[in-house]
Amino acid sequence: MSASGSADRPLIISYSYSGSTHRIAKEISAITGGDWHEIYPWQPYPMAFPELLEQARREVETGYHPRLLPGSGDPKPYSVIFAGSPNWCGSIAPPLASWLAENDLSGKIILPFYSHCGGVSCDFRRDISRLCPRADVRGALGITENGSGDMREILRLWLTQNGLRTLSAAYAG
């Protein structure tokens, strides 16, 4: 990532267990020209779903923030940050919570997004506002894991609703 000119582009940060959230992040990067960085926990999550679900519930309930692998993107040169993860037990995934807690995002605009399979409802805006009380956290966007129609159009509408239509207009195509 080059710091030159990055204030004009957004930063896209995402954690994805199955790849669904990264699919959304990749599309956000394509329509905004933003710099995309993936978050990885130091210790990978279990591959078996029952074990993953048990660990995710425990971590969300206790507010656990796992250690992350280095290289997940420096937010300092950016004014707009897209922050995404799967909806785990009605909350942001702990790796994203770790990244948000580790970085000073005061004065930044944060746009939360998440993937879900239609399960427990969540309030990503509230969750991120608690971790980043001095940031301008805008409305969240949830997209089902199997799609959600025309994702590019859904993302453009979301940007417009959050007062950031110019981000997608600059890279329309």
Q: Could you explain the architecture of this structure?
A:
- GO terms for molecular function: FMN binding; oxidoreductase activity, acting on NAD(P)H.
- Residues 11-138 form the Flavodoxin-like domain.
- This is Flavodoxin.
- It comes from Candidatus Lachnoclostridium pullistercoris.
- With 173 residues, this protein is of the alpha/beta class.
- It has one domain (8-162): Rossmann fold (3-Layer(aba) Sandwich), CATH 3.40.50.
- It has six helices and seven strands.
- Strands 1, 2, 3, 4, 5, 6 and 7 form a seven-stranded mixed β-sheet that branches.
- Helix 4 (124-131) links the parallel strand 5 (109-116) and strand 6 (136-137).
- Helix 1 packs across helix 5 (151-161).
- Mean pLDDT is 87; it is low at 1-5.
**Beta strand %:** 15-25%
Find the structural class using helix and strand composition: alpha/beta
Q: On the 0-100 scale, what is the average pLDDT?
A: 87
Determine the number of helices (DSSP H or I, runs of at least 4 residues): 6
Q: What sort of overall outline do the alpha carbons produce when their principal axes are compared?
A: globular
What order do the SSEs take from the amino end to the carboxyl end, as H and E? EHEHEEHEHEEHH
Strand count: 7
Protein name: Flavodoxin
Domain Flavodoxin-like: 11-138
Pfam family, one: Flavodoxin_4
GO molecular function, one term: oxidoreductase activity, acting on NAD(P)H
